[in-house]
Every structure is written in C-alpha cells, then in structure tokens.
C-alpha cells in the first residue's frame, strides 16, 4: 500500500489494517519535515498484525512517542523508515532479536535515545540514517556492510572505527562529539567514498595526505573542528572534482553550507562539488594544486590562519559558485584574472590584508555588497558602474 505524498489527516488504528492479510509494503509519507503531523498512528500495544511486511516507510506521520510495538513480529523486514515520526524512546530489545537483514534503516529526525545496539544486521551496500536524534555512546560496530551512513547531529563519542565498509560511499558524522585524528588508514579502508562530512566535531591534528587517495570524493566537509597545519598539496588529486563521475554517484540527503547558507540537498546531491575547510586552525598558503579541481563549485577556507596570496589560476575554475576566504591573513593584490569566474554568486574576502583594485565586470557586478571586502587594509568595493574606490 503506497500512498506517498498525499495530504492525509486523522487517526490510523489497527482496525484500518486488520483485513490486509497480504500486505507487504506500507508506505505513507510526506517529505516535509513540518512540526505539524496531520496523520497519527494509534495502534494498541497488544495488537499482532495478520501480515508480514517487507517495507515499512512512514515519513512525517506521528507514530510515537513509543517505538511501535506492533512491529515486533515483523521478521521479514528489508526496509524500515520511521522518519520524523515523533518517537522519543530507546530502541527496543526485540528489534535486535528479529534478526533482520535490512537494506535501509531510517530513523532520522526523532528523539530516540540510548545506545545503538551492535547486534543490528544489514545487507551489503545498505543505507542507515540515524541523524537528528539523541543517541549516545560510541559509534556502533556493525558498519562493515553499510555503504551510506548518516549519523549527524546525534551525540556519539569516541574516534573513527576501523570496521567501515570498503565500499562506503557516504559517511556523514557531522555534529557529534567525536575526537582524535583522521586515521591514516582512511584511504585504504574507504577507497570509493564520495561524501565525507566530519563537520562540528572535536577532531584535531593535520589533514592527512591519505585523504588524497579518496579519488572519487566530491564533498569534503571537515569544517568546525581543530585541524591544524597546511592544506595538503595533493588535494589536487581529488579527481571526483575534476572528472564527470555522475554515473557512480550516490543520491542521498545531506545538509551542506554553500552560498553562505545551510541547504539540505536531497535529490540533487550528485551535482554538488564542495571543499569546506572553514573554522579550523589551518595555516600556510593555499596550495596551487587546488586550482586543478576543474569541477569545484564551493571552496570555503574561512576562519583559519591562512596567509599569502590567492592562487592566480583560481580564475580558471569556471564552475566555482561560492568562494569564501574571509577571516584569514591573506595579503597581496586581488588578482584581475579572477574575473573569468563567470558562475560565481557568493564571494567573501572580508577581514584579510588584501590591497589594490577589485576586479570589475562579469560576476563581480552581481556580488557588489561592500561588506564582502570590509576589514582589509583598504575598504574596497567594485560598484555595478565599475567605479572603484580604494
């Protein structure tokens, strides 16, 4: 039964489901994450369904606050989605005892607490969304079969785990309390990863050169950590941001910062190419090799301690839409060659030591807000009339 994307309202009880003895797929969903949920499941705890489901997909329906007990005999499940279901409970013990082999588990946008049991089992190349919950403790150890992990905005502690799947495509550990270094084995253990999001954790140390072995990577987001040292010059080897690898890309959901705003990408994530190293303690000059990433769409290096000049070849990055170099220690003139950045619609060079004349024409006529240049040695602004004062 598939009634996705409808405006259902009211209360669903066991009486609505009791005669559906052959039911295999229960899919009721709206993709909105609205706080108002118009469809409420009110099924008694003792009810035993007459069917064995393979697919449960309930999005933006009120199923909670308790984890639905009528699932406890559904031992043929392959997909379990209870996203934005108002569940404020722990994962029940019977969920592990069902001995499921899931292709997809999505419990995102609830208030589920406690530890994630290591006994959950998944089929190869499965997908798990646990983001936006209140789980605690270390990362679960069942990740060796999971190719897409979305664990953002939980409260996981600890460090990277070595049980990650070799065919991992997406790893989102953003907004947790993970610490330590990025391990040197990351290139060996996750050679196919496309998306690596480590934002807003407690990671530290240098960005290891082993990241450069992730040749298919097209989103690298370790922002808001304590990484230090220089940007590895081998980042220019990230060929996922150089060649068109769309046929291998994973279509998932990820909250990313681009154009100065947090955006949730759901169906167009494969069109995004991002390096976001902002809000760390990186130092040194920006490596010229970054300008070899010909498909790069967003480069955010803001709030670091970077020095020197902007690489002159950055003007060759025609797909570049977002460039944020603010709050660093860059110096030297702003190079006119960057006027070839015809796709740019967000630029921030504020609070550096730039001097000289701002390039005019092309994209600089669409980013004419003077605040993007403030805090430099001179107040610089290219107006739409190309009348530059400095």
Write a concise keyword list for the protein shown above:
single chain, 390 residues, mainly beta, 30 strands, 2% helix, elongated
Question: Could you explain the architecture of this structure?
Answer:
With 390 residues, the chain is mainly beta. It has one domain (10-373): Alpha-Beta Horseshoe (Leucine-rich repeat, LRR (right-handed beta-alpha superhelix)), CATH 3.80.10.10. Helices cover 2% and strands 29% of the residues. The protein has 2 helices and 30 strands. The strands form 6 sheets. It has a 14-stranded parallel beta sheet, with no helix packed on it. It has an 8-stranded parallel beta sheet with strand order 12-14-16-18-22-24-26-28, with no helix packed on it. Helix 1 links the parallel strand 6 (79-83) and strand 7. The longest helix is centred in the N-terminal third of the chain and has 5 residues, at 93-97. The radius of gyration is 24 Å and the shape is elongated. The chain starts with a strand and ends with a strand.
């Amino acid at each position: 039964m598939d009634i996705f994307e409808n405006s259902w309202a009211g209360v669903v009880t066991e009486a609505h489901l009791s005669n559906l003895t052959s039911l295999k797929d229960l899919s009721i969903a709206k993709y909105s994450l609205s706080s108002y949920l118009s469809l409420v499941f009110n099924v008694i705890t003792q009810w035993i369904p007459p069917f064995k489901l393979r697919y449960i997909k309930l999005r933006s329906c009120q199923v909670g606050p308790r984890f639905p007990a009528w699932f406890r005999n559904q031992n043929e499940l392959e997909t379990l989605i209870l996203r934005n279901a108002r569940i404020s409970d722990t994962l029940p013990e019977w969920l592990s005892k069902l001995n499921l082999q899931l292709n997809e588990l999505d419990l995102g946008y609830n208030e589920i607490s406690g530890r994630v049991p290591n006994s959950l089992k998944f089929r190869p190349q499965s997908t798990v969304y646990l983001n936006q919950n209140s789980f605690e403790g270390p990362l679960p150890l069942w990740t060796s079969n999971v190719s897409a992990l979305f664990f953002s905005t939980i409260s996981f502690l600890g460090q990277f785990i070595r049980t990650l799947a070799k065919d991992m495509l997406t790893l989102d550990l953003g907004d947790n309390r993970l610490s330590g270094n990025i391990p040197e084995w990351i290139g060996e253990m996750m050679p196919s990863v496309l998306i690596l999001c480590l934002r807003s954790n407690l990671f530290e140390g240098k960005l290891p050169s082993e990241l450069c072995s992730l040749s298919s990577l097209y989103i690298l987001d370790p922002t808001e950590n304590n990484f230090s040292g220089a940007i590895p010059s081998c980042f220019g080897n990230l060929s996922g941001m150089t060649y068109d690898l769309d046929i291998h890309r994973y279509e998932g959901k990820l909250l990313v910062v681009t154009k100065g705003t947090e955006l949730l990408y759901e169906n167009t994530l494969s069109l995004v190419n991002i390096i976001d190293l902002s809000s760390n303690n990186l130092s040194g000059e920006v490596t010229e090799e970054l300008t070899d990433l010909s498909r790069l769409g967003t480069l955010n290096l803001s709030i670091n301690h970077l020095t020197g000049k902007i690489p002159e070849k950055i003007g060759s990055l025609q797909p570049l839409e977002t460039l944020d170099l603010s709050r660093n220690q860059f110096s030297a003139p702003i190079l006119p060659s960057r006027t070839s950045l015809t796709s740019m619609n967000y630029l921030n060079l504020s609070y550096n030591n730039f001097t000289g004349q701002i390039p005019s024409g092309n994209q600089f006529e669409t980013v004419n807000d003077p605040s993007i240049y403030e805090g430099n040695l001179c107040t610089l602004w290219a107006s739409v009339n190309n009348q530059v004062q400095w």
